[in-house]
Amino acid sequence: MVVAGEASGDLHGAGLCAAIRTLSPGARVFGMGGEHMRAAGVELLADVSRRATVGGTEAVSGVPALYRIFRRLRRVLEEEHPDVLVLIDFPEFNLRLARVARRAEIPVVYFVPPQIWAWRRGRIRTIRRLVSLVLAAFPFERALYRDAGVAVEFVGHPVVDGLAAAPSRAAARRALAVADDAPVIGLLPGSRPGEVARMLPLMRETAVRLAARWPTARFVVAQAPTLDGPLVQGIIGGTPGIRVVRDATLAVIRAADLLLVTSGTATLEAALLGTPMVVCYKLSRTSELLGRMTLRVPWISLVNIVLGRRVVPELFERRHVTVDRIVNEAAALLDNTEARTAQLAAFAELRAQLGEPGVGMRAAYLILGGGLRPPSDGRRAPSGALLPASPREQDCAGKARARTRS
To answer: 130: Cβ–Cβ under 8 A, 6 or more apart, which residues?
Structure first.
């Protein structure tokens, strides 16, 4: 059983499940995900890609539906007893499902585990008790989990595999019908209706302001497949110079000279494809307060978190997420060649930390390789994956620990 709860997890799960089916064509792969996992041959018991939420108050509306899905998956775990439960991110839901699997003595593998180094560090005790093997996406995670007594292997970040299908810049511009010399600014407002409703109006007004300064610029909104068209079109309306494209996020990223992007996996995709960006995100007041209480690092974008410094500008406190601030940050990158060059140099550094292509296949080998079993006690998961960390990983883990203390 494979369980992913939002758009990015669906993408990561699709690559993993395709690899599992390649290595073991007769395997039955079923669980929760979205259209990408379905296309990879997964038997979906629940499609929740449109229900994913973020934050504190934003998540409340989705609770009844998710609880119904949880009860169904719990029943399947208890009655069908799959050989392994594979969890992908989505920790609030997935760690509860892991408890069910633990009671049923079903091994649990966590692919793209919770970002305990950023917030809710105490979750590592729950993971140690419930999870047989963590497949880490970042190199420093291996040492952090190993030091806590959790069986772990670094396989790399699945976004690396996902970018294999990204078009070239020239092909992306042809697909979007954009001239080679036209400045292109991509707008990536997110994959969840709530975040799009908060961020896209600000991005639209920013585009209008930037268009007045750069009349030849073209603006393209990348609409996530999890979003209904009326929501995006209702915000953009007939705003001149702004196009909306669906299911073409990688093309928009590759074609753009600059991105306005919400925090999330898209920031990693943009960095790996070499597109400068401004990260902006707006939560409700309650969720922002909760974030201040629990967040252990001073950044929200994965680029800055992984590199441990401010590489891309971030606007996420409500008082800072204004059209004026976004325009100023965007204009600074459009005007300043040195600032763009500095981002690109940092992106190359990030690329070296995320592993080589073949992430899904490496993860599938470990999942199918046998030897997995539920943790035998609350202290240490019995697995052969507890290998010594390399000096590079030890250094990365030390930096991560230092960031969580700051």
So the answer is: 95, 98, 99, 101, 102, 108, 375
